[in-house]
């Protein structure tokens, strides 16, 4: 790796040593610091940053609070916000290859495409080397035969998978007539834990479009990833382990059938589905040594599980919006807010807060049916002074914007899996990281303003007025349909 283009060690010694450690597979040198008691007292008791205090008051359900969902703020963390998904996936794969002890991954989508098969082969190799390899995936997003073949192959390679079941086994659940609401609840969290030393979170799944690996411009998405080291990784480990145990218990409690025969039958039916061609000669662009966006910073992990009636991510969003005094910058793939979120944004404008929102246009949204409903909300917000942009794609009309991130008052950064829609805030299992760092806030703000908005168009008031009350029959029907499916979506 060429290091001549980079600053001397004296200026960025921590970043350079970190990069060398990753390449060499020496991630064990990055041992997390032990947090000191009472550190959260440095934050004010009220206002934006009070959410980092250990005594911050979340509203709890009868089944909570849970230390797995609401651990305290962790100090002494290092974070790296990626501005290119290509770099994020290149580092993910380098770290997989370098792992020496364990690889724990939870993802919503693990696609049976080129990127998925590349990842699967590395996981299989590491499992056969004796590493603790665990994979948690959402149970109801793997009906594509191509994906089923990949998961059956990984199972046969000894990878410990929870959540996935082939389509033939879907009805072999907790009962023969599954609750429709349970079927609608998705495990939308995304975690990577490599050797207990380096972690990843964000909106990305494991598929070509997230890695921007493809010739088709529609396979080049925008998303926001974060790499981190430090004590916060233990909270992610606990959450992933809890989900792994949860799926294990569900699977062990199912009605017994001859699963060996069933899997074998499915495998025979899928054997003629071709595996995607993997080009082993293709290499990612030469990576610079990773420079942390911010070092030694407080980070808080917040999680919510619908099975426990938790809404902590929603509570966090409301608190951050309610307590911002200067600026709010939000990037979300899907925007279908509830009344509480709308009122919080309107109140922020009444306080003189600059509020900017970036989401998808109809051409780039991979869930087109919800766009008319998203646009219906624009009028009320824009009349209050909220500015809204719609992502057009870095190739116009192609490539979805899938990021879920925000910056509040140039101080607090949110990155994670929740979108600002009914599904993420009330239905799905979701998680986020809150980072108290001016440096991280500056980085993400600059990227959104100079890159993402470059490929976006600001919505006009004329557009918002029409979308709120469309006169064409087709548009009116699509809006009506969007409102019908909103509770389900």
Describe this structure as you would to a colleague.
- The protein folds into 2 domains: 83-270, Endonuclease Chain A (Endonuclease, Chain A, 2-Layer Sandwich); 296-485, Endonuclease Chain A (Endonuclease, Chain A), CATH 3.30.870.10.
- The protein has 16 helices and 17 strands.
- It has helices at residues 9-24, 85-98, 114-128, 145-156, 180-184, 208-211, 232-252, 259-270, 312-322, 339-350, 371-376, 378-383, 422-427, 438-452, 461-468, 473-485; strands spanning 74-81, 102-107, 132-137, 160-162, 191-194, 198-202, 225-229, 294-304, 327-332, 335-336, 354-360, 387-391, 404-408, 412-416, 420-421, 430-436, 456-458.
- Helix 3 (114-128) links the parallel strand 2 (102-107) and strand 3 (132-137).
- The longest helix has 21 residues, at 232-252.
- It starts with 8 loop residues before the first helix and ends with a helix.
List the helices and strands and how they pair.
Elements: H1 9-24, E1 74-81, H2 85-98, E2 102-107, H3 114-128, E3 132-137, H4 145-156, E4 160-162, H5 180-184, E5 191-194, E6 198-202, H6 208-211, E7 225-229, H7 232-252, H8 259-270, E8 294-304, H9 312-322, E9 327-332, E10 335-336, H10 339-350, E11 354-360, H11 371-376, H12 378-383, E12 387-391, E13 404-408, E14 412-416, E15 420-421, H13 422-427, E16 430-436, H14 438-452, E17 456-458, H15 461-468, H16 473-485
Parallel strand pairs: 2-3, 3-4, 9-11, 10-15, 11-12
Antiparallel strand pairs: 1-7, 1-8, 2-5, 5-6, 6-7, 8-16, 9-13, 12-17, 13-14, 14-16
Helix pairs in contact: 9-10
């Amino acid at each position: 790796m060429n290091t001549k283009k980079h600053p001397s060690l004296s200026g960025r010694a921590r970043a350079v040593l970190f990069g060398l450690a990753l390449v060499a597979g020496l991630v064990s040198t990055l041992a997390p610091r032990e947090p000191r008691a009472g550190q959260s007292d440095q934050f004010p008791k009220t206002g934006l940053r009070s959410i980092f205090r250990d005594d911050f008051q979340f509203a709890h359900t009868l089944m909570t609070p849970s230390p797995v969902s609401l651990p305290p703020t962790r100090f002494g963390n290092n974070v790296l916000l990626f501005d290119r998904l290509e770099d994020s996936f290149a580092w993910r794969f380098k770290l997989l290859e370098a792992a020496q002890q364990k690889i724990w991954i939870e993802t919503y989508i693990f696609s049976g495409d080129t990127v998925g098969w590349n990842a699967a082969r590395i996981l299989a190799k590491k499992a056969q080397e004796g590493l603790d390899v665990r994979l948690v995936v959402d149970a109801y997003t793997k009906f594509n035969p191509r994906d089923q073949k990949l998961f059956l192959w990984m199972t046969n390679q000894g990878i410990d998978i929870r959540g996935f079941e082939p389509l033939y086994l879907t009805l072999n659940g907790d009962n023969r007539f599954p609750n429709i609401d349970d079927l609608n609840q998705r495990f939308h969290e995304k975690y990577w834990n490599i050797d207990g030393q380096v972690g990843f979170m964000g909106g990305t799944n494991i598929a070509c479009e997230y890695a921007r690996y493809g010739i088709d411009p529609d396979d080049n998405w925008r998303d926001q990833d974060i790499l981190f080291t430090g004590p916060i990784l233990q909270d992610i480990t606990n959450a992933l382990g809890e989900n792994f145990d949860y799926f294990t218990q569900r699977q062990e409690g199912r009605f017994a059938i001859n699963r060996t025969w069933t899997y074998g039958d499915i495998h025979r039916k899928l054997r003629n589905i071709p595996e995607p061609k993997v080009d082993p000669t293709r290499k990612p662009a030469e990576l610079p040594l990773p420079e942390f966006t911010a070092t030694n910073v407080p980070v808080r992990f917040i999680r919510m599980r619908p099975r426990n009636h938790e809404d902590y991510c929603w509570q966090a969003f409301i608190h951050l919006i309610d307590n911002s005094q200067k600026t709010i910058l939000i990037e979300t793939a899907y925007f279908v807010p509830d009344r509480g979120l709308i009122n919080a944004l309107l109140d922020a404008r009444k306080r003189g807060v600059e509020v900017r929102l970036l989401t998808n246009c109809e051409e780039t949204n991979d869930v087109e049916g919800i766009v008319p409903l998203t646009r219906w909300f624009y009028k009320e917000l824009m009349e209050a002074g909220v500015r809204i942009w719609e992502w057009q794609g870095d190739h116009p009309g192609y490539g979805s914007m899938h990021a879920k991130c925000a910056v509040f008052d140039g101080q607090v950064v949110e990155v994670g899996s929740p979108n600002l829609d009914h599904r993420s805030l009330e239905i799905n299992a979701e998680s986020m990281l809150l980072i108290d760092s001016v440096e991280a806030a500056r980085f993400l703000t600059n990227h959104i303003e100079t890159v993402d908005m470059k490929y976006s168009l600001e919505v006009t008031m004329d557009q918002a007025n029409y979308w709120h009350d469309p006169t064409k029959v087709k548009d009116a029907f699509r809006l009506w349909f969007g409102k019908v499916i909103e509770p389900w979506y």
